[in-house]
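worker-3 :: picked diguanylate cyclase
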Amino acid sequence: MANPVTLFCFREDKTLSNALGVFILTTIFYTFGASLRLVDELSLFWPLNGIMAGVFARHAFLNKPLYYAICYVAMLAWDAVTTSWGVASLAINLSNLIFIVTVAMLVLRDKSRQPQLPQAMFALRLFGYCLIAALLCALCGAVGSVGIDKRQLMPLYADWFSEQFSTGVLLVPWVLTLSWPRVRHLPAKDDLWPLLAVIVSLGVSVLVGGAGSLVFPLIGLIWCALRYSFSTSAFITFCTGATEIVLVAYGVIDMNAVSPLGTNQMFSTRLGIATLAICPLIVGASVAALNAVMRQVSRRADYDHLTGVYSRSGLYEALSQRPRAPSSLCVLLIDIDYFKSINDNYGHECGDAALANFGERLLALVGMNGMVARMGGEEFVVIRSGIAFSEGLRFAEMLRTTLAAEPFHWQGQQLHLTVSIGMGFDEAPVTAMRETFDMLMREADSFLYQSKRAGRNRTSCRAHGEAQQSGEAIQTDR
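worker-3 :: C-alpha cells ->
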C-alpha cells in the first residue's frame, strides 16, 4: 500500500505547520468521537485513533516524540475543557496514543523491511497490527476508565478492545490509501451496481435483524472490491461497518442476543464487523496486485525490453487507438549501418548494449513529438504527424547527423554508428491510421533500400510536389 500523495498539508521541512496540523486533526476527530458518546462514558465510535495511526504511518517524518506529544496534549486539552475526568484522562488518552504509536510503528517497519510487500499480504498483516494495538490500548484504557465508569474491569476491557479493533480495521486501510479524487468521467450505470448492492443489503439487515444480518453486505462489499480501486472499496467498507455499528447501537438492527461473558451486544457486533471487513480488503488488495501485474505484462508486450521503445505489436496497438489519420503523416524507417560487424567483432553483448544506447538516444531526440518503435533487429521506425514534407525531411536529417556525431563507448573503445533512413510521407491521408502507416512503411522501406544501395549514411525519399508523380527520389548524405 504505497502512499499515493502527501495529505493534510504535512511537509518534512515544515515543523511548525506539521505540529499545528497534528493538533487540529486530533482535536477535530476527538470532538467527533466524543459527540457519539452514549449513556456510558465511552464513545460508540472512535475514529481518532485509526485516523491518526494512518496519518503517522503515511508520513514517516511525523514519527517523532514531538508530534506524538502534541497529539497527546491535544487530547488532554479537549478533556480538560469538556470533562471532569481529572487524572483518569491521563490514562485514557495514553491508551489512545498507544494504539496510534503501535500501528504506525509496525506499518513503518514493514515498509522499511519489505517495501515491495504484496498488498494482500500487507492487508492481512494490518489486521494483525490492529489486533495487537487494540489489546494494548484496551488494557490501559480499561484500567483508566474504572474510576469514571460503574462497570467492572473485564466488561470495560472487552468494550475498549472491540471498539479499537473494529475501528482500526475499518479506518487504517482507507487512510493509508487515501488520495485526492480524480474524476475523469461520470460513472457508468454498471459501475453503480456494487454500491447499490451494499445499500440494499443494509436495508435488508434492518428488516431481518439478528446477528446474522450483519454479514448481509459481505457479497456487495466483495463485489465493490472487484470493481473499484482498493482505496474506494476500503472507504465503502469503512462506511458500511460504521453504519452497522450505529444501527445496532440505536436498536435499528435488533440483535436480541446476550453474551455469555456478560459483555454487552456491542462486543460481538464489533468483533464480527472487524472480521467481516478484512474479507473485501484482502480481495481488493489482491485485485490491485493482479491489475499491477497485468499492466506490467501489457507493458512488456507493448515495449521492447532492450531499447525501451515500442515493440512492433505495441506500435500497432497504439495506432489502433487513433483510428483517424492526421492531416499529414511522416514515417521514417531507420537502419543502423553495418550493425552485423559489431556483433561479429565485439560480441552480442556489445551489440545489445549498442542497441539499448541507440534506442535511448533516438527516444530522447524524438521526445513527445512522435512515436518510436523497434521493428526488429537493428531497424527502427519514427512516426511524425501534422508536419510538412520539408519539416519531415529536416527532422530525418537531424536524427541522422546527431546519431552519427555521438560515438558509443564500449570497454574503452569508441564505436561510431551511422544510420540509413527511408522516408514515407502523405500530406493528406484518406485512409485509417493503420492503413496509412502500412502504406507509408512500404514506401519508406523501398527508399531505405535506395539509401543502402547509394552508400548508406543518408536519407532517401520521394520528391515532393510535381516531381512526386514521376517517382523521382531525393537523397541526402554527408
